[in-house]
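Hi U.,

Before I forget, here's the chain from the pilot set. I'm dumping it here mostly so it's searchable later in email.
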Amino acid sequence: MGKDEKGFGAGADSGAAACAGGFERIYADAGKRVKIYRVSPTLYYRKADLAERGQCNTAFVVGDAGVAVVDAPPGAAELADEAMELFHKPVTAVYLTHAHGDHIDGLPDFLDREVAIYCSRRYAEALNADGKRCRADLVGIDGRLSLTLSGGVPVELFTAGDVMHSKYDMFVWLPDVGALCTGDSVVEYQTAYLHTADVTGWINGLQRLAQKPGGKWILPGHADVPLPYSYIGEFAEFLKVVRRAAARCFDAFEPDTPPDGNRFAGVGAEKLAALVDRFFDGGLSAAEGLADAARLTRLAGVQDARREVRMALWAMIREYLG
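Structure:
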């Protein structure tokens, strides 16, 4: 099978299996910019393209009579087509990890199908609020729900309690595989998105997840391949450094005019960006701060590290403003 320069192919791979991170690639499509990797006989990781197509990474959980998909990115009908092509089974369930557009904008593709859609109770209430009727069965989760797909494939859905990456977060745990689908609550360092996050609640939730027994793999919403379960703890430490850097910027902020009971009144993005740049360039100098700036840059890259600290700083300001 021919492949382009980026390693994509058309349709299911043939001949010697392509691998990444030790996972066999069973499918690649250059036009859709999709690669699918086998994690186990019942679990497959779909690597998509956020920048070009606005799609998060997703997963297929394969039972005897149907397939559950994790998340519904734009163009989600493709997932149903891929399930039939690769596994010869229809999509019978959708598990939504949260409600950002790259994870749910394809949901209309499933609402008029006979499927069960599982999400956090908070998001189910938001979906029900619009009053639209659909064929799909919507199930809101608050706490934990244990399911068994046809063929005896166990699945556990659970919410964190705290607001983490967003107020709608839900996790998908495959105990037979030791794999956790995290949505964007765990991602590669350079793809953290904090605008809807409670950073402290996020860190606390990750620390609890890191202690879950039996964990082997995480399937993030944004990564090249599944990551070792131990990465959850590493990502929590990364967010601690982001929070610490944002707190230094918060404390160093000086309003342009005397505060009228609110030191952040009227503050703009440009002023905060300049403040974050000062932190990374050593202008808020302290040995620990310089070390934090260097660590964030090494892990996330120059531009993404600064973007993430800016988002965390805005989150602190929103909390301050109430």
